Each structure stands twice: as structure tokens, then as C-alpha cells.
Here is the input.
Amino acid sequence: MMMVLQILGGFVLTAGVLLAAVPELVNRFKGPNDTPQTVPKETGAAISRRIRWGWVIAVGYLLMYPPIGLGVLPVLVTLAVAGIAGIMTARLMGLMLDGIEIRHLFRFAAESLILGGLWTWFVKLSA
Here is the structure.
């Protein structure tokens, strides 16, 4: 069962990364009267359209690395780590592909600090 979840998680993770890399695959169907949406000219808006797919990446991470233990705390910590890691992956792709914007760079740094603290706490819980 664990192997099936990891394979399914790999497919979901790949789909999330693909959608974050090329959000126009889905955005072309979201315009009024099915007209394609244009790519925003502002760097911040262009990065934000990629971040929307971070939740798909987070679900892929969560399927690949399910919660360890049956308590409520390990499950919550795993959900938080997977969610932040998915958003960070999509934000980093946006920063690399669309350009650097200071607001998103600061958010990435804050998410890195939060993820580092949660990961440290998670390692202490599972030890």
C-alpha cells in the first residue's frame, strides 16, 4: 500500500510541478467566454499565478511522505510541512522563471525559516 501511495504521490507531484511551470495549460480555459488569459506583465502577478499550483505539489509531497505516527501532533506537523514545502516549490519556480521580486523573495525567506523550525520540531517528535 505504501508503494502505491508513493507512486501516486510522484504522479501528483509531477503534475503540480508541470502546472506550476506552465500555468497557461489551465489558464487558457479560465477567461471569459473561454478566451485565453494573458500572462501578467508585472513580476509579482506572474509569480502569484504559479503559486496557486503549490497545493497540488503539497498533496504530492503528502502522498509520498505520509504522517509518521498516529497522534494528532505528527499529522498536523506533516500537513504543515507538506503545505509550506509545496508553496515554496511553486514560489521558487516563479522566482526563477519570472524574475526576482523583493516581496516574494522575503516571503520565500520567511517560509524557509518556518519550514526549518517545523522540520526541526518534526525530527525531535519522531526521535
Notes: The mean pLDDT is 86. The CA atoms of residues 19 and 40 lie 16 Å apart. The helical segments are 2-21, 24-27, 43-51, 54-64, 72-98, 102-126. The radius of gyration is 16 Å.
